Prior knowledge:
Blueprint: H1 3-10, E1 12-19, H2 26-34, E2 52-57, E3 61-66, H3 84-92, E4 95-101, H4 108-117, E5 124-129, H5 136-149, E6 154-157, H6 166-175, H7 188-191, H8 194-207, E7 219-226, E8 238-246, H9 249-256, H10 261-278, E9 282-290, H11 298-303
Parallel strand pairs: 1-3, 1-4, 4-5, 5-6, 8-9
Antiparallel strand pairs: 2-3, 7-8
Guanosine-5'-triphosphate (GTP) binds near residues 23, 25, 159 and 160.
Amino acid sequence: MGDDATTAETHRSGFACFVGRPNVGKSTLTNALVGEKVAIMSSRPQTTRRAIRGVLTRDDAQLILVDTPGLHRPRTLLGERLNDVVRETFNEVDVIGFCLPADEKIGPGDKWIARELSEARAPVIAIVTKVDSVPKARVAEHLMAVSELADWAEVIPVSAVEDIQVDVLADLLVKYLPKGPPLYIDGEITDEPEDVRVAELIREAALEGVHDELPHSIAVMIEEMVEPDSPEATKDVLEIRAQLFVERDSQKGIIIGHKGERLRDVGATARAGIERLLGRRVYLDLHVKVAKEWQRDPKQLGRMGF
Ligand SMILES: Nc1nc2c(ncn2[C@@H]2O[C@H](COP(=O)(O)OP(=O)(O)OP(=O)(O)O)[C@@H](O)[C@H]2O)c(=O)[nH]1
């Protein structure tokens, strides 16, 4: 009785992302929240398709910090909007942390992000970062200015470097997560073999935008990863050869796209993710094959490592 039942009923789990201009302390804060064990990887498709920056696992909650790719104020087209990926991320997470450093005045970039965030589905916590770097009076002034910028769910001053209020921020983020069991078993995230994570990134890229047409009919097999200094190498970067399996010719057509355009995009997206995951340059050789009814064929499944 007691603890387990209570924990199961009150446990919260979900996703958060940090946004803000470059250099405002997002990475440092992520590390302070989750410790040094930051794993960058693709996530399970049933949860979110974003790269994970870190997971904070406590008895009462699990907070998964996901990456927000490329939040840049457009300089060219006046009134251009956020790209879809960023907006999608805002709609997938349960809570957003908007970082504004105490040692810099609120600028046009911050105002632009604030406006974009006002359309996000998730509640936004305004985080005043680096409070250790300025006098208290300045922090107070900045907090006022930030509060007036928009109608935030919360406003909180923190210092990741001096560990000021980082645990309070964790509590605040957790407060906005839905009730539910942990989504990741601790350790699972980093223990996966590299090729499985690489395959998952390719699969994710292939499914991007075509979920309904190709629900589960895609499998990826990594044939080889060739180091540049090995005798088989033909490139001076890590060469990855992968097969993408679909069940039907029509699905192959969808993946490849008109004149191979879609497959090129899939390759480019997957390669970018893989390069970030592995922290090195990669050449990705991707082929699509029809493996009919592979999901029902044990031999094929075996070959694909299922
Ligand atoms: N004094 C102080 N400096 C900090 C704090 N947090 C981050 N910094 C410094 O601010 C700089 C930028 O921090 P990052 O965490 O890399 O910022 P970021 O927002 O992730 O930057 P991008 O990756 O460029 O978007 C680094 O030099 C950090 O050491 C803090 O709490 N206090």
